[in-house]
Amino acid sequence: xxxxxKKNNTLAIVLGILLLLSFLGLGYxxxxxxxxxxxxxxxxxxxxxTEIARQNVIQxxxxxxxxxQTLSDQNQTMSEELNAEREKIKELIQQAxxxxxxxxxxxxEAETLRNIMKGYLVTxxxxxxxxxxxxxxxxxxxxxxETQKTVxxxxxxxxxxxxxxxxxxxxxxxxxxxxxxxxxxxxxxQKPTDKAGRTDVVKACFTIPSNAIAASGKRKIFxxxxxxxxxVLGAKEDPGFVVNGRKGVYTHHKEIEYSGxxxxxxxxWETTDELAKGNYNVQLYESGRELxxxxxxxx
Length: 299
Fold this sequence. Notes:
The protein contains three helices and ten strands; from the N terminus they run H-H-H-E-E-E-E-E-E-E-E-E-E. The protein has 299 residues and is α+β, with helices and mostly antiparallel strands. It has a domain of 124 residues: Immunoglobulin-like, CATH 2.60.40. The strands form three sheets. Strands 2-1-3-8 form a four-stranded antiparallel β-sheet, with no helix packed on it. A four-stranded antiparallel β-sheet has the order 7-4-9-10, with no helix packed on it. A two-stranded antiparallel ribbon has the order 5-6. Helix 1 runs antiparallel to helix 2 and helix 1 packs parallel to helix 3. It is rod-shaped.
């Protein structure tokens, strides 16, 4: 009986120990399970945070790439350099999407590219400022050029006017132009007449004033007499005689020696047929230019 009680006590002790160990084991497992859940939650949070950070970097890179595109479109002179940086950003975006690089490395590379872009922005701003200054300067220079052009045009017009005046002043002038009909006597003397039927010679006298700038030398004076019916009396041709820029016919000519001093000249044309009554328009020409004209009336 005593032995049986002893066995029962021992069994009770063993069962108590086993029960205690079971409680201890369950407690340990509970603690470990709690720790595991905490670790899983921490890892999950880190993974989520990492993914969020990765997406933020990708978004930043996309925005940066778009900014580079805008800068490239607006600055053709630097488009090659800017497009090269855009390609780097695109490559970095692909690396981020493929999760090839760590977040810290992606952020570092993104920051480097951002700093590079800031440098480009400073350069572009300086270039824009310089361009604005150059544009302002160009506008001012264009204004000065237009002003100078206007001045030059005025000077050219003045010079042309002066040249025209000089050319006009250098031409021969005729004053005191008078024409009369003359009766030719056997002695050689002549007597004025206003009778058409008695006119043997048409006499035209004139004065050439002094002219310091007119060229000296031989000059050919042409006289053209247009009768009452519109025909040119005598009707001769000469390569040097032109009227209004076209070859014409004349009645008589005389070659004179001009020295620049004032001189008087007379021209005589002997009639070949009896003149009709009426008005005769007598014109003087030199170097294709009309010098003077006179209306001779014969009865």
